[in-house]
Specification:
heterodimer, A: mainly alpha, two-stranded antiparallel ribbon, globular, B: mainly alpha, Four Helix Bundle (Hemerythrin (Met), subunit A)
Amino acid sequence: MVRLLALDPVAIGDLLWTPLLIIILKVVAIFAIGLLVTMFMVWFERKAIAGMQNRIGPNKAGPWGLLQTLADGIKLFFKEDLLPDRADRFVFKLAPYLAFVPAFLVWSVIPLGGDFSDGKNGIVTWFGEQTRVQLADPPVGILLVLALSSIAVYGIMLAGWSSGSKYPLLGSVRASAQMVSYEAALGLSIATVLLLAGTLSTSGIVANQDGFANWHVVSTGVVPFIIFLLAATAELNRPPFDLVEAEQELVGGFNTEYSSIRFGLFFLAEFMNTVTMSGIIVTLFWGGPQGLFDIPVIPGAIEGTIWFIAKVLLFLYVYVWFRATLPRFRYDQLMDLGWKILIPMSLGWFMLMAALRLGRDQDWNQAVVAIVSAVVLIVCAGLISLAMKVSRANREREGATF
Amino acid sequence: MELGVFVIAAAMVIVGAVGVILRPNPVHAALSLVLTLFGVAVHFVALEAHFLAAVQVIVYAGAIVVLFLFVIMLLGVDRTEDITIEPFKVQRPMALVVGVGVIGLVTAAVSSSRDAIGRGNGLEIPTVTGDNDSNVRQIARSVFGDYVVAFELTSVLLVVAVVGTVMLTRRIKSGKGES
């Protein structure tokens, strides 16, 4: 039971006032930062897309329209809270929280900063107490993220079902099918990272990536990163995988019947998820708070946060960029990409990395190991594509039109 | 504190289990099942089996019950039913007999082996070290070491089940191809 508290080095030992205050401060600060970041993410997305589409975007509320989201939020608060007649009342009220709470909890395991240089392991000293610049560092780390993202599926699924209306149900069935399918590819590409890091804890994964050559995007050979980025985009239901809220077909998707603050919670969760997923990508593949070079003058602990923010901003921009550039996938294309390309590819790459790792540990000839694994992978890929060809031929024989 | 966690988690498990049986709406019953699974996950965390807790949530709550809900929603059986009507008459007395029997057996087993639980009983009890990943390591050792044959056979069984299901549901209509 005592070890449950060891999520943060500050909580080890007797529980005194200073550590308790530090923890409370961290909880409040991370909650507030999460909300603020989400607020500015909405503004950033609208502004950046406006720029790409030759519009001005929000520019009335506050300087450069910065307070636009706040204004929208206040408006949502004062709207009437509708409860559809055919809705399942309890589930209808529960669903927004199931979407919103996991989005926030993920935020608590991401290392937001800290000094990872010279094996310092990201521990910083505040008021004479050692702690991390992350709310919790549980032993299961990255698995917690997967668990929470599987809880978030419930929010969307139940929201659509409990509305008691057709379009939300269609939207939510699409959404959950998509999220469950891409979770497999997501998990398998994380497994490749864990193979190298040798630990599940998020701070351990960051500590493993000292120096650019050890950043997992390089040391796992880019492929898992690309798979993760695609799968994460699908998991977030963001364009080009936003079939969930395809307005032309589904009105507004799973949240059509929601209004007022409940809709606000879904909206917040969606953008919060975008920010946290960028944080996860940075943590897993791009070294988290680890920098490429020392920034002069600024002390190490703050430097980590600066690097982290810079990298997260890059990925937030990538997401906005995707949305402005890429047209939406068709549903069968989405499922084909997930099941027939991403999952076999991530599995194959995982096996390749495992074989190379084993070869290195057993002192086998690296070249032979690489060639043999490559041949095996090519044979497997050939078999899979043959199987797909056969099944397509069978479908056509049965008279299917797709 | 340990007792408090146990009581809360046990209450979650029991309330969820009762809900699965008594809720007339299948979706509510499935959600009660999620509550039970979460209670079990809390028990795992309290026993310092963090990995099992995470896997419990990811696999059972995240995949299996989502699949249940999916089937319920797609088949359109998500309407409230009158659970007092029983189409299969022997079911309830049988369930009662089996339930009482299982409770009796478990109680007898626990009371007769009072000392053996938690002490040397042939199974190695893993020690918790300062290492954060000791959990994962010990599970991996036993799954991929001592019990690797059983593990692989289970995976073969699962594949057979999946392939069998696909074969049963997708009959190729003979004769249509030639025409």
